[in-house]
Amino acid sequence: MKDKRVLFYNTISQGHTRWIYDVGHNAIVSLDDTYHKCNDFETSFFNKNVLYGKIYAYKDKIIGVPNFAEQILIYKGRDKVSYIDLPDELKRFKVKYGYFWNAELESNILYIIGYCIPFIVVVDLEKEDIISVIDLSAYYLEERIQYYSESTIYNNYIIIPEFEDNAVIIFDKISLQSKRIIIKNTGKGFSALVKDNQYIWLFPSHAGEIVKWNFDTNEVMLYEKYPKKVNLKQNDLSFGHAIDIGNEILVFPYNLKTVVSISKRNGKMKSLISFEKCFNNENFGIAYVEKNDDIVTCISYSKEVIQYDIKEDEIVKYCLEVSLKDYEKYLLKMLKKGYIVINEKEVSLQRYLENILLEKL
Q1: Which of the 8 DSSP states describes residue 87?
Q2: What is the pTM of this model?
Q3: pLDDT: is 33 or 294 the higher one?
Q4: pLDDT band at 358 (very low <50, low <70, confident <90, very high)
Q5: In 3D, which of 43, 91, 39 has the Cα closest to residue 66?
Q6: Among 125, 202, 124, which Cα is nearest to 159's?
Q7: In angstroms, rounded to a whole number, what is the distance separating the alpha carbons of residues 77 and 243?
Q8: How far apart are CA 308 and CA 305, in angstroms?
């Protein structure tokens, strides 16, 4: 549905500026100081596909991880945009949800991790060049719809859970070698993780237990006593995101109408009543979660921003919207490209004539 509200998969800071990539309008946007208002579009990419997803900051550059784009985005300011082409061997895949989703940034090196392709692309952001392409397809007998969604760095390794199987890829950043280990679990794959000292918490993408895995000893502990309101079904997506809030981890749903809190000490779980009050049939499903001090901020797939105060156990909801000027420009440009149909309720006839007939876009 076309509207002015934004949807994003992460935020970054450069100096005092907070940035997002608005996947709904394919635009780089900065937020005002309160994070409650969008500034004007910095750069727009008018396309029917979501070109980029997550973004990362390196010096004065904003790096866009390609979703359906076939280039890595390097943004240095208005009218200062360049690209790094993806290798041809990656473009042969017919991706359903996009090429990449997550990345890990360490110094000037960005490790871009496949989403619907079994590859890791290593990029030198100083030289703006791909220095290595790691093919992980040998681990799989057949192509999958989705491979990985999240990752974390542990010492010299990147830990990458598999989305459709109970396994983890361990990638050595020094040798650029990898290995695959099986994590015993009754579910099917992992969609989120949290690093807790030597432990890696893994959260199921399709039912199954929550796993607490000791990376150093390979010891595994399983937790399956979910709250009564959590009814995980094997073929349904379960959890999408998890975030460490100190003594507990909050686990956010794909389609469940509750948020689960699990104790890091003993694995006991409970539902957070405050979140249940704000979920409804339209807005469950969380696209992104971050924590700043005692505030957990989420954005739902229905484009609502939900802020949870951990100490006060209180929730505030609001929407972030692009300006009317940018929204009309977006609609008219997409109309001109033949991607959408609009009506006069969305853009006035006068604005239509100004921008379409007079070729002012």
Answers
A1: P
A2: 0.90
A3: 294
A4: very low
A5: 91
A6: 202
A7: 31
A8: 10
